[in-house]
Each structure stands twice: as structure tokens, then as C-alpha cells.
Design brief:
By secondary structure, this protein is of the alpha/beta class. Helix content is 19%, strand content 24%. It contains 4 helices and 11 strands; from the N terminus they run ββββββββββαβααα. Strands 1-4-3-2-11-6-7-8-10 form a 9-stranded mixed β-sheet, covered by helices on one side. Strands 5-9 form a two-stranded parallel ribbon.
């Protein structure tokens, strides 16, 4: 979070300058006026567990709803292509502040109700996972059928190198398998559909301390 940003008291507004930053390293959600560089609100959250991580990246709000039950009182849906993810309340307030969800961003019901009043369709929601980005929990050995931010980053890198003409959807489907094999063949790697450490390295994805 920029040290230039300052806190501001404000009435709920749905102007085009508002955006949301979710910082998974802090378990915090920030509502920001991007034009004025002001933090309007900040909230504690719960994020995804390592085995069901939150979708790192920049998304847009595509849906809003009021509901009840285990997912709290409000739902703010995001356009993540490989699954249904969003920001919502919870009936487990003790989980806030930890990695506890199946990938969604959990908030206290009172907090999500307040945030909901600011949110508009098309609002930008950036989910930050730390300096390693999509590889917050290190390299996962990817196999056909896997989904997530790391798959999306591999697709981007392969496309940049001319190896993947498909959709950037974060899904390792059948359409991606042949291009993984072609990349492996051209780079003299073992012929398997898996995406392992040597594959990442040949793509130029290296995690540095």
C-alpha cells in the first residue's frame, strides 16, 4: 500500500474512481479512490486456503446480490474465468484474519454490507498475493484439469512465446495439452503433460528471494 495514500472519511458513493484492493499478505481489503489516491475504507478479511487459493489478479465486479445463510448477507461476484469467486459475508466471524475460505474473500456481515453500498458493476478488484504473484505458495506441479492463477500465468507466458493460441482462462484443459507437449519438445524436455519446475524455468518463471 502506497505510503502516500491517506485515510478519508466519505459518504457512500459509486463513482468511477473507486476500486478495491485485496491484500492477501495482510488479510485486508481496501476501498480506494484511485483519482485522489485516498483509502476510503479498510476491512479485515479471510482469504482462500493454500489448497483452495483466492484468485490473484485484476478482476471486475459482474454481480451483486443480497442473501442469507453461510455466505453472509451480501455477494459481490467477480469475473474470474475458471470458477465462481467473489466477496461475501460469513456466518463464521472467527475465520476473519486467516486463510480459511474456498477461494472467496470473506468479510464480517456488517463490513460487507457497508462495502456493498459503494460497489458498482464493472468496478476493478485487484487481488494481490505478494511479490511472487500467482505463485504465492510456490510452484505447483500442474496437470490437465487444474485451474487457478498459476495456470493463467503459464498461459500468458506461453502465449508471449508463441506457444498458446487459446483463451487465457486459467484452465488447463484438453486444448492446452498439445501446446504443452510442443513447448516441451522444442525445449528438449521430457514428454509429459505435466508442468513442472523445468517447464517453469524454460518459460522464464523463476522465483527469487
Amino acid at each position: 500500500m502506497s505510503t502516500q495514500a491517506v485515510f478519508a472519511a466519505s459518504k457512500p458513493q459509486k463513482n468511477k474512481n473507486l476500486a478495491i484492493l485485496v491484500d492477501l499478505t495482510e488479510e485486508r481489503l481496501y476501498l480506494i479512490d484511485t483519482k485522489k489516491n485516498l483509502i476510503i475504507k479498510k476491512y479485515s478479511i479471510a482469504s482462500g486456503k493454500p489448497e483452495t487459493p483466492s484468485p490473484i489478479g485484476t478482476w471486475k465486479v459482474i454481480g451483486k446480490d443480497q442473501w442469507s445463510g453461510g455466505f453472509g448477507t451480501r455477494w459481490i461476484g467477480l469475473n474470474v474465468p475458471w470458477g465462481k469467486f467473489g466477496i461475501h459475508g460469513t456466518n463464521k466471524p472467527g475465520s476473519i484474519g486467516s486463510e480459511a475460505s474456498h477461494g472467496c474473500i470473506r468479510m464480517l456481515n456488517n463490513d460487507v454490507e457497508e462495502l456493498y453500498r459503494y460497489v458498482r458493476h464493472g468496478m476493478i478488484v485487484s487481488i494481490y498475493g505478494g511479490p511472487y504473484g500467482a505463485f504465492e505458495w510456490g510452484f505447483r506441479r500442474l496437470q490437465p484439469g487444474d485451474r487457478g492463477s498459476d495456470v493463467l500465468e503459464v498461459q500468458r507466458k506461453m502465449k508471449d512465446k508463441g506457444y498458446y493460441p487459446g483463451n487465457l482462462d486459467g484452465i488447463y484443459g484438453d486444448g492446452m495439452k498439445e501446446f504443452v507437449l510442443k513447448f516441451r519438445k522444442d525445449n528438449k524436455l521430457e514428454m509429459t503433460h505435466d508442468i513442472d519446475y523445468r517447464f517453469y524455468k524454460k518459460l522464464g518463471i523463476i522465483l527469487m528471494d
